[in-house]
Design goal:
Elements (H helix, E strand, L loop, with lengths): L8 E7 L6 E7 L4 H20 L3 H5 L2 E8 L7 E2 L1 H11 L5 E4 L10 E12 L2 E13 L5 E7 L5 E3 L1
Parallel strand pairs: 3-8
Antiparallel strand pairs: 1-2, 3-4, 5-6, 6-7, 7-8, 7-9
């Protein structure tokens, strides 16, 4: 009897809708590509839950020691847990709530993204800010960077 060779790699060919273009995705068996996505998504959900519970310490616990936060992108990045902790200690007590606008998205790398709306009360008005956060993660599942994409045109007074 001959040996049966089992491939260690699963290859997916995905056709882009409405085109003749294909994207090839390779997933090695025995790796945690999919669980890594699940883990990143779970951390991002914990971030939302902790923020909405007004628990700055729980948010900060999700970050690696030398992490960076750029909120919004284009502002000077905050570096390290002390600076990041001070940021959340200031922002979270304002009472804003974060509501997902779409499912959290993973990647084939160490990054994930989420689109959400920040709902805030300011001067007797409700203000909504449409935001996309992109986070990168280390091997232990800690956030190494958070970049918040939003601008003036993403702010709406209701």
């Amino acid at each position: 009897m001959g040996d049966i060779q089992h491939s260690r790699e699963l290859v997916l060919n995905i056709q882009l809708k409405g085109t003749d273009s294909f994207t090839q995705i390779k997933i090695e068996k025995g790796t945690n590509n999919m669980s890594t996505q699940s883990e990143m998504k779970a951390v991002m959900q914990k971030y939302l839950d902790a923020f909405n519970a007004q628990d700055a310490d729980a948010v900060l616990a999700l970050y690696a020691e030398n992490a960076t936060v750029e909120d919004p992108v284009g502002s000077p990045p905050l570096q390290g847990k002390e600076a990041i902790g001070a940021f959340y200690q200031k922002v979270i007590p304002m009472g804003s709530k974060l509501k997902l606008a779409a499912p959290i998205r993973g990647s084939h790398s160490n990054s994930a993204a989420m689109a959400f709306v920040v709902e805030s009360a300011m001067d007797g008005h409700t203000v909504n800010i449409n935001v996309i956060d992109v986070m990168t993660f280390d091997e232990s599942g800690k956030i190494t960077s958070m970049r918040a994409y939003w601008g003036k045109e993403d702010c709406n007074i209701l």
